[in-house]
Amino acid sequence: MISPCLSINEKGHLVISGCDTVELAERYGTPLYVMSEDEIRSVCRRYRSSFEEYYQGNGKALYASKAFCCKEICRIVTEEGLDVEVVSGGELYTALQAGISPENIHFQGNNKTVSELEFAVNSGVGDIVVDNLSELYKLQKIAAKQGTIVPISLRIKPGIDAHTHEFIRTGQIDSKFGIDLTSGEALEAVKMAAGMREVSLRGLHCHVGSQIFEKEPFVHAAEVMLNFFAEIKQKLSVEFDFLNLGGGFGIHYVEEDDAIPYEEYMAAVSEAVHRKCGELGLPLPKIYIEPGRSIVGEAGITLYTVGNILEIPTVRNYVSIDGGMYENPRYALYQAQYTCLIANKANQPADYIATVTGKCCESGDLIQEHTSIQRPEEGDILAVLSTGAYNYSMASNYNRNVRPACVMVSEGKSRIVIKGETYDDLLRNDI
Ligand SMILES: *Cc1c(COP(=O)(O)O)cnc(C)c1O
C-alpha cells in the first residue's frame, strides 16, 4: 500500500488507521473524504525529530495549510509543534479560529490585498512574508497608521537553473512569486526593508516548487540563499534570524513515485547549511521548512459509490462515481496521477482497465484514465488514495454539487471534522 496508514483486512476490505472503509462509507455516506490523524501526526513528528537529529532543533516546520485547511487540522499540527502558514485572509481566519496563537502564523501570497494585510497586522501575525516591493510599501503604510512594527520576511526568487532541475516550478525567473535575486532587485529590497522603522526584517524565504523527489534543489536553494546572506552582511551589515526554505517534498500517489524519506531532506540541508555558514563565516540561522502536501497527502483517501459502468468496446470502460472534479479537480487541472481501487474487493486482482469519471457535466470530469482496478460492479465502494492534499482545499460547488464531509480516523475510531454541505448551504448567500 502506498501509505503506511492503509491495509487490507480479512474481509478483503481496504482499512485506514484501523477503520474498515466499507463501514465508513455505510455509516457516513459517499463521497467521503477520510483523513488519518495517526498518519498526519506521524509525519509531523518525523519532521520535528529530523530537526532535533540533524539541526540541533534550531528550526521548525510550518504546515502550509493551503494543502488542506480546516480547524481540526490546524489544531492537530499545532499540537505536534508545527507553525501554520496561510495564504489568504480566509486561511488566516481559520487558523485564528482554531486557536492558533498569531505569533505562530506565517502569511504568504503574491498579491495579498490591503484588507488581508490589515487583518494580519491587527491580528499580530508573527511573520508576514512580503512577496514584492508594492506589498512592502502597503505594509509600511498600514504599520504607520496602526503605530506598530510589523515582523516580516522577504520572499526571494533564487533563480535556480530550471534546466538542471526541471521539476522546479516557482524558483525560476519566470515566476510570479518573489523578488528577483539575480538582477540585484532582492538586495535593494533588503536595503529598503532594513531601513524602514515600521517593519522588522527577520528572515528570508524561498520556495522552489512542489512534489519534488530530489534533495538537490533544497541544498542548492540553501547554498544560494546563504551566499546572499553573506553578501547582505558584507554590504549592508544586516543579519537574519531565520532562513525559510519552503516546501514541496514529494509523496506517493502511485507505486512508482520515488518519494524519499523526509528525514533525508533535513540531513542534506543541514549538512549544506553547516558547510556554507562555516565557509562564509555566518552564524547558523534558524531553518524553517513549509511542508503542505507531505503532511496530509498520503493521510487522505476519498470513498465513492460506483454508479453506471459504460463499456465502449475497443475504446474504454467508463466507471462513474458519485463525486468528480468538483471535489477533486486535480486530474482535470494537471492530469495528476492517482491509485484507485475497489475498497470492498481490495484483495482481488486489479485486472480491469477503467476510466474513472465523475458526475459533472464536462467530458474532462475525470479522476483517472486507463487505470487498473478490481472488476467493478454498481454499488461497489471505489477508493482513490493520497487525496489528503489539494482535494478538499480545491473543491467547489460546480453543478451545485455539495462538498462532501470529511471524517478523521485514528486507531479504529472515526469522527466528523467537516460536515458535508447541504442544499441549504448552497443557497446561503443567494438573495
Ligand atoms: C504551496 C506552498 C508550500 C507547500 O508546498 P507543498 O508542495 O504542498 O509542500 C510551501 N510554501 C509556499 C510558499 C507555497 O506556496
Largest sheet: 9 strands, mixed
The low-confidence parts are none
CA gyration radius, whole angstroms:
23 Å
Helix fraction bin: 25-40%
Named once each, the bound ligands are:
pyridoxal-5'-phosphate
The dominant shape is globular
First-last Cα distance: 48 Å
**DSSP strand count:** 21
β-strand percent reads: 15-25%
Helix segment count? 12
Provide the residue-averaged pLDDT.
Answer: 96
Structural class: alpha/beta
What can you tell me about this protein's structure?
The protein is an alpha/beta fold and 431 residues long. Helix content is 31%, strand content 25%. It is built from twelve helices and 21 strands. Helix 9 links the parallel strand 12 and strand 13 (286-289). Helix 5 packs across helix 6 (133-146). Bound molecules: pyridoxal-5'-phosphate. The site of pyridoxal-5'-phosphate has 15 residues, from helix 10.
Summary keywords:
globular, alpha/beta, nine-stranded mixed sheet, binds pyridoxal-5'-phosphate, 12 helices, 431 residues, eight-stranded parallel β-barrel, single chain
Would you summarize the structure shown here?
By secondary structure, this protein is α/β, with parallel strands linked by helices. It has helices at 21-28, 37-55, 71-79, 89-97, 114-123, 133-146, 185-194, 216-236, 262-280, 293-296, 330-334, 423-427; strands spanning 6-8, 14-16, 19-20, 32-36, 59-64, 83-86, 105-107, 127-130, 150-157, 179-180, 199-205, 242-244, 286-289, 300-312, 316-321, 340-342, 352-357, 366-373, 381-385, 405-410, 413-418. Pyridoxal-5'-phosphate is lined by residues 64, 66-67, 108, 207, 210, 246-249, 290-294.
